[in-house]
Amino acid sequence: MIRVTNLQKFFGDQLLFNDVNLTIGEGEKIGLIGRNGSGKSTFLKMLLERDDSKGGEIECHPSVVIRSLEQNLDFGAPTVLAQVCSALPADSVHEEWRAKASLMGLGFEEFDFDRPPFEFSSGFKIRIRLAETLVSDSHLLLLDEPTNYLDIVSLRWLEHF
Ligand SMILES: Nc1ncnc2c1ncn2[C@@H]1O[C@H](COP(=O)(O)OP(=O)(O)OP(=O)(O)O)[C@@H](O)[C@H]1O
Ligand SMILES: [Mg+2]
Predict the structure, then answer these.
(1) Domain locations along the chain
(2) Does residue 122 have its Cβ closer than 6 Å to ligand 1?
(3) CB 99 within 8 A of CB 81
(4) What is the CATH number of domain 68-160?
C-alpha cells in the first residue's frame, strides 16, 4: 500500500534520520518505537503529508487515504453524536450505529450523545476526534502516542477495533 525508500529528514543542516526503508501493507498494524526526539512524530507527519521533498521516496497510490487525529478541538455540530456522524463517509451517512459504537468504546455514555462537544474536557474532546477518525474511511490511521489520552479500557477497545 505504501513504500518508503531511503527517506531523509534534515532540520537546517542537522540530519534527523536517513535511510528509512519500509513497506506498509493493507491491514497491517505497526508500532513505531524510539527515543524521545528521535523523529517518530516527524516521520508520521511526513507520511501523512507524503512529504519526500528532502530526499528519498514515499510511494503511495493517490487513492490511499491516510488520516491522523485532527488537532483542532473546535466542533461545528451541536451534539457529540452529530459531530461524529458528520465524519461518516458519504455512502454510509445512515450508519449512526457506527458512531455510537465508537463513542461507547471510547468511554462515552448514551446520555452524552446529545450533549454539546464543548462541555467535555480536552481529553474527551480528543476522543470525539478519534471517534470521527474511526468512522471515516481511511486506509491508514496514524496515532501518535494514543496512550496519552486514553484510559486502559478505551485502549483495549481501540486495539480490538
Ligand atoms: N520544525 C522543527 N524545526 C526544527 N527542529 C524540529 C522541528 N520539529 C522537530 N524538531 C526536532 O526534531 C527532533 C525530532 O522530533 P520529533 O518530535 O519528531 O521526535 P519524537 O521521536 O516524536 O519525540 P517524542 O518521543 O518526544 O515525541 C527533535 O530534536 C525536535 O526538537
Ligand atoms: Mg513525538
Answers:
(1) 2-63, 68-160
(2) no
(3) yes
(4) 3.40.50.300
Q: 20 and 56 in contact (C-beta within 8 Å)?
A: yes
Atom number of ligand 1 nearest to Cα 36:
25
Q: What is the tens place of the pLDDT at every residue in 97-123?
A: 999 999 999 999 999 999 999 999 999
By DSSP bridging, strand 2-11 and strand 57-60 are antiparallel
Chain segment 23-46, per-residue pLDDT in tens: 999 999 999 999 999 999 999 999
Which atom of ligand 1 sits closest to the CA of residue 44? Answer: 18
What SS3 state is found at 101?
Answer: helix
User: Which residues have beta carbons under 5 A from ligand 2 (an ion)?
Assistant: 40-41
- Which residue minimizes the CA distance to atom 3 of ligand 1? 11
CA 26 to centroid of ligand 1, rounded, Å: 28
Cell numbers for 4, please give them.
518508503
Q: Whose CA is nearest to atom 2 of ligand 1?
A: 11
- The residue to which cell 540530519 is assigned: 15
pTM of the model: 0.88
